[in-house]
Amino acid sequence: MFSLESQPQAYTEKHEKMLEKHSSIVVEMVKNLSSKKFEQLGKGNVGEVMSAGKSHKVCLKFVSPETVSEDVLANSLKREADLQDKIHSLNIEGVKVPKPYWTMSMESEEGKIIQVFAMETINGASIHDVFNNEGVDLPDNFNLQEFISKLSNFVREINERNIYHKDLHYGNVMVDFETGDPVVIDFGKATETFASENPYRDQVLPNGEVRYQRDETWVREIGENLGAYLTNKKK
Length: 235
Ligand SMILES: Nc1ncnc2c1ncn2[C@@H]1O[C@H](COP(=O)(O)OP(=O)(O)OP(=O)(O)O)[C@@H](O)[C@H]1O
Ligand SMILES: [Mg+2]
What we know:
Elements: E1 2-10, H1 13-31, E2 40-43, E3 48-51, E4 58-63, H2 77-90, E5 100-108, E6 113-120, E7 124-126, H3 127-132, H4 144-160, E8 163-164, E9 173-176, E10 182-184, E11 191-192, H5 215-234
Antiparallel strand pairs: 1-5, 2-3, 3-4, 4-6, 5-6, 7-9, 8-11, 9-10
Helix pairs in contact: 4-5
Bound molecules: adenosine-5'-triphosphate and magnesium ion.
């Protein structure tokens, strides 16, 4: 029913075993993606993130490239996972990046490609969900100044290594419920580009629409809006 489009790849030997174990879950999930059978952790413009089991330790991001418009899809899920692996390994102080476990790509009988990426589940919420979802809030130990300074440092560190996230919107920055620290997710539009080559060169489209906002601009905006959110809450 599903055949492998390319060899699955695990990031460590330990995760190879995990990949074997997960293969049947993945097929089951693909068949039931829109049903309520599996818990959805979130959905963006590109993919859908599902919990891989009751323990909530592993989650799976699914992308069907054909169903995503070209202006939204930048990296293949494999490329996204490779960049996430690289940034995760930098171990930048104060900011978490979900640990990548494995990726695979499948083709259905009808020839539909489905890419899957397994990673660590974050116990937290995106800033978007904090702002928009009732019952989702910042943890008690949340410190705005520390949060923004950590996020700002993270952006500086990756940019210094010629990596640009390029899509640090409110849905791609999460707050860890335990530590109150930022978590950066979704490297689907990230690039490795020398600053001299202008990593944001696609910033303004011919129709004038702004597509890529600078990483540090996102951080400043997130800081301002979190500040306003906290002030409103006190009232
Ligand atoms: N590792 C994770 N742990 C917990 N929740 C996650 C994780 N990864 C993603 N999510 C949730 O799923 C949502 C969608 O994931 P993601 O941002 O990767 O999808 P996307 O379609 O690429 O997004 P975009 O619209 O930014 O392109 C996130 O906003 C977040 O709420
Ligand atoms: Mg996203």
